[in-house]
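To whoever picks this up:

The parser on our side crashed when reading a file containing two proteins. I've narrowed it down to the boundary between the first structure block and the second sequence. Both blocks are reproduced below exactly, byte for byte. First block:
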Amino acid sequence: MYKRTSDLSRIELLDNSWRVACSVARDMALFLANDDPQLGAPNALCSSNDVMYVCAPASCVAVAGMGPSVFSFHRHDIFWLSLSLSACSGSDAPSVSLEEVLVGVHTLTWTAMREILAAALAAGFFVPTPSDTVAAVRAALLWSAGNRAALRVITAQDFELLPDMPPSAHTRWWLATA
């Protein structure tokens, strides 16, 4: 049985171990996720040490037959995580105003998402208990509220039109009826 003081030091040791593990994972995270070359957007691929998998492993699905570990995820998951870790400057000139950007029509570029996530991770952001995108975005919103100075400012140039959806592989049943 532990004394109260040793229990506290043991808890502190576990907490420090967890912080070190999170720090190591954060320092080793890659930023190589990209649209799936076969399926196209919004399907994206990443590796097991990519920032998307490190922050939200439950939102990533292993791709069978691809090695080393390749995971598929929805591009909007990393979009919302990036948006939660970014800031908007009120001093944008009218030509670069975010009012020109529409959610559902535009998305952040891969470059912008990588830069936003890299800046946040370098400033100390981590997901305390990585599970899914909802948990990662929630952690990002809580962290960003107290670390506004560390957030990357986004502008209209950081957005692009959503990529074209690939044509459906399924035949349209209503065209096959007489």
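<<boundary where parser fails>>
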Amino acid sequence: MNDLSAPHRPPATALLAVAGAIAALLSWAGPAAAASPFDGTWTVSWTNRGGSAEEAKLVLADRAGTFQRRAHNARNPCIGRETPVELEVQSPTSAIARLFGSRAMAGCTDTELTLTKTSDDTLTVMMGAGNAAQAVRAK
């Protein structure tokens, strides 16, 4: 007769297999990501629609970072706010930087920048509406 109230114990081999699988998953970190050629601190400069010079600081490491315009605007609290960035490297000389203004503050917009490496220490940055900027790596 089968006693349903007795605890069921899986065979020891099944427990060892499960424990081994869990250990393998926990220890696997995948291949280490290579450093991005875009890592570093960059000063981004451009001329706005009104003809005034603008500047921002772009900090990238491990395909993430921050973007912060140096200007502030009392009418637009999104300007000058440090914004999270995620970087998608397309090639050693090309990347897409996704700026998540909405994560910095509700109501701020997200945008994309196209980064093209022109030398080890300079980038061309294409902003929305075809506006071009230059970025120089901080020493």
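After patching the parser it read the second block fine. The domain at 40-137 is CATH 2.40.128.120 (Lipocalin). The chain has one domain: 40-137.
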